[in-house]
Amino acid sequence: DGSQIVWIAPSGGRDRPDPLTGEWYPAPFDTASVDNMRRLADHSGAPGHIYPLALLCYDIMPPPLQVEKEIGERRVISFHGAGLSIAPEIRFSEIAVACENPEEAKKAYAQVLHDSVIEQYNVLKSAIHESRGLEASSPTVSLSQPWN
């Protein structure tokens, strides 16, 4: 069909705070999950594109500090700012060309995507948690607000 957006959490969507600092950060990406996403896009029949996306919203409904196996995790909901950032498309072929074998290319691609998400996430944290707003923009992550 085309014109569809699919959001996939390549770390399982289970970000947790750093046990030493208490700072939240996107969990490392699972290389196999990223590669499955890429192969789905490549074989979908319609052109597929992969854009790194950072979403900062844990203060609204943070997950428990520990991963709980049971259904029905207790969640506390609060009012807080949120941020969404989407970086330019990153093509697997552009990363793979510098790699010696397919496994190295898969790992490198997952890492490049993760690095982009971390960069965006840090800008969003600065904008929201440090109250810098649009001034938190960097040369590679430009924030905007479509309303006043």
Features of the shown structure:
148 residues; mainly alpha; Glycerol-3-phosphate (1)-acyltransferase; two-stranded antiparallel sheet; 3 helices; 5% strand
Topology:
Layout: H1 31-42, E1 53-56, E2 83-86, H2 92-96, H3 102-129
Strand adjacency order, main sheet: 1-2
Structural class: mainly alpha
Question: How is the biggest beta sheet arranged?
Answer: 2 strands, antiparallel
- Unreliable residue runs: none
- CATH C-level class: Alpha Beta
By DSSP (H or I, 4+ residues per run), the number of helices equals 3
- Our measurement of the CA-to-CA distance between the termini, rounded to an integer number of angstroms, reads 35 Å
| Beta-strand fraction estimate | 5-15%
CATH architecture: 3-Layer(aba) Sandwich
What does this structure look like?
The chain contains three helices and two strands; from the N terminus they run H-E-E-H-H. The mean pLDDT is 88. The protein is globular, with a radius of gyration of 17 Å. With 148 residues, the chain is mainly α. The protein has a two-stranded antiparallel sheet. It has one domain (31-136): Glycerol-3-phosphate (1)-acyltransferase, CATH 3.40.1130.10. The chain has helices at residues 31-42, 92-96, 102-129; strands at 53-56, 83-86.
